[in-house]
Amino acid sequence: MIRLIVMGVSGSGKSSVGEGIAAALSLPFIEGDGLHPESNVKKMSAGIPLTDEDRWPWLDKIGAELAKAEKGVVVSCSALKKMYRDRLRREAGGPLAFVFLDGSLVVLRDHMGKRTGHFMPLSMLDSQLATLESPMGEPLVFTQDVAHPIMQIVEASVAWLRAQEL
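User: That's the sequence. What structure does it adopt?
Assistant: Structure tokens below.
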């Protein structure tokens, strides 16, 4: 059973990649941003970075969704710090894999500039990059460069997940 977090900073393509992976594996997809409390959305919309205390209830909701997914699930979640990923691992109820969408500031800014209807302003990208602790070296992490086309990232991620025998 695959429990997967598609992680990265804002503009990395978490939702698009997550939806693609979920469709390829016939799993449900959960948009992690939809689990934020309204107070978090208001702060981020105003360009105010979230604190760890702001994030804990959100991460716990994501952890609960992971734990109750009996047949597997794909969730988008920034999971910027190791302690957030460790908390998600504890809450997941089984092995938890991560696809880390990594990219240059230029590519990420370009992605954010092209999207519509998202509450996260471009000004928040620098804060997220400053907070990001790379998951390189952690268990069950697959890194993809966001400069690649989404379908290429999806296909590589699905192949990697299948090879993990989760």
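Helices lie at 14-25, 38-45, 52-68, 82-91, 105-114, 124-131, 150-164.
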